[in-house]
Each structure stands twice: as C-alpha cells, then as structure tokens.
C-alpha cells in the first residue's frame, strides 16, 4: 500500500504539470485495485491507541465507517477512467482524490512504530525525507504547469515568461521547450526551488 501510494503521489502531479495522459497505465490500474482491496482489509485492521492497538472488530468497523470510509471511497472509485474519454484534462485533476490515501500511510507508520524496535528518530527522519522529496516533486510539477500554461510572454510575469527566464541561467543551452522530458523536469525543479528559496 505504501509503494502504491508513493507511485500515485509522484505520477499524478507529473501528469498534471506536464500534461501527460497516463491512460490505462498498468501500474496505476494495479494501484487502483490495491486501493479498492484495502477498503475491506481496513475494516479488519486494528485501531492504533496511544498505548495499544484495538482489535475488536465491531469497534474497528464503527470507527472506520464514521471516519475514513468516505475518503477511501473517493480515492478508490476509478471515475477518472470514465472522464478520460470525454474530459481528459479534468480526469488528470480528479486523480488527485487518490491523495486521500495519505491517511492510510499515516496509520501504517503509527502501527509500525508501536510494533518494532526501530528508534522514533530514525523513523521520523525517513518520513520527513519522504515528505520533502514529495513536496519538491510537487513544486516542480506546479512550476511546469504554470510554464506550460503561459509559454509566451505574459503580463503575469512582468512581460516575460518562466521559460524565457531560463535563457539567462549559466547552464541554459537552447530553448527549454525542446528538451526531453527529464531534462525539462530538472530545469523546472531548479527554477521552482530557486523561486521558493527567494
């Protein structure tokens, strides 16, 4: 489940930022199936308390129905595949609903901490590293979305465009719009980080 959510968290923003339709991408379909299977499994997963894990099925069921079931349903229903036929742009944004599975990731970390001897510092360091990597990726994809949305000179950027600013960088070697996807990705990553730090 953690790997499935990680894959979705990196692929979905990339599709929005770089305007790529993943279509019926096999890994995404596998993630979708795992999210759906997780609903009945979660009804049988213990509830994490400060000192113990509750395993009473009736309490787990009532807790799940009143808290996470709605969000899990939003993350699991494959509505984007229906919309992709008629509204491909909207379908990219609808896929963001899968981010509701982050609550499951949070629960998994809590259960892991209660049942292992791994130090809390090491676990939290890994979590923060994961979060910072994910935020950097999302920032890059957001920068890509803005640059692709306003590729020409725009009054929104003082009469210039994000792409034209790249030509002033020392490592720029031509029009960034002609780069392959990964070179363009790292350009967006650099520019997004530069803007965020200023």
Summary of the model, kept short:
This protein is 67% helix and 2% strand. The protein has helices at residues 2-17, 26-42, 57-66, 69-76, 79-86, 88-94, 102-115, 120-149, 162-166, 181-197, and strands at residues 47-48, 53-54.
Task: Please describe what this structure looks like.
The protein is mainly alpha-helical. The chain has two domains: 1-116; 128-198, no CATH class. Helices cover 67% and strands 2% of the residues. The protein has helices at 2-17, 26-42, 57-66, 69-76, 79-86, 88-94, 102-115, 120-149, 162-166, 181-197; strands at residues 47-48, 53-54. A two-stranded antiparallel ribbon has the order 1-2. Strand 1 (47-48) and strand 2 form a beta hairpin. The longest helix is centred in the last third of the chain and has 30 residues, at 120-149. It is flat, with a radius of gyration of 20 Å.
- Strands of the widest sheet, in order across it, are 1-2
Counting structural domains, the number is 2
Helix content class: 55-70%
Unreliable residue stretches: none
Termini separation comes to 37 Å
Rounded to an integer in angstroms, the radius of gyration calculated over CA atoms is 20 Å
- In percent terms, what proportion of residues is strand? under 5%
- Strand count: 2
Strand count, sense and barrel status of the largest sheet are:
2 strands, antiparallel
Mean pLDDT: 77
Tell me the overall shape: flat
DSSP summary: helix tally: 10
* Class computed from helices, strands and strand pairing: mainly alpha
The SSE order reads: HHEEHHHHHHHH
